[in-house]
Predict the structure.
Amino acid sequence: MSYYAVTVEKLIDEFKKMPGVGYKSAQRLAFYVLGLPNEKAKKLADVIMEAKEKITYCTICCNLTDENPCKICTDVKRDKSTICVVENPSDVVALEKTREYRGLYHVLHGVISPMDGIKPDDIKIKELIQRLASDEVKEVIIATNPNVEGEATASYIARLLTGFGIKVTRIAKGIPIGSDIEYADEITLLKALENRTEI
């Protein structure tokens, strides 16, 4: 039984569909929106619609952009010989914040996950392969998450690229800086040992 008016419950249900938003958070968001003055609620709705209308996929890297190709792909200072393959647009932001990587990106928009019915054709792998037709690319860095789906996707892409004569690397995995070894799980410790470097 619902304790809210039908319209309020519909609003809560829409917020609940967002990733990482449970019922309580959806409820708080709904009440926040309902508490906004009309002009602020309209501005929020307008900004959402503007983003939906203006944001598209970059035709080169598949990242979200409001200009096509995106700023990273058109930046002449970027190293065109390296492509870093990531799962989501938010991963590009995370890597850019390091201010160390100066190559290009390719956004898959997901990972292969047979349990969820996501096959290789459902993510942007074909677009990556098309980019490698140019002789400019010398290395592909696979930076998918170190979970089952991310590892499966990384292995699949690495196998696909064997005939291209391109160096394929995987980001290192191991103990995060600032954490304690005693709290790390076995897989993280194993990867940390495998990826050890000489000092």
Summary: The first strand starts at residue 56 and ends at 57. The helical segments are 6-16, 23-35, 38-54, 71-74, 89-96, 125-131, 148-160, 186-194. Residues 6-54 form a domain with the Helicase, Ruva Protein; domain 3 fold (CATH 1.10.8.420).
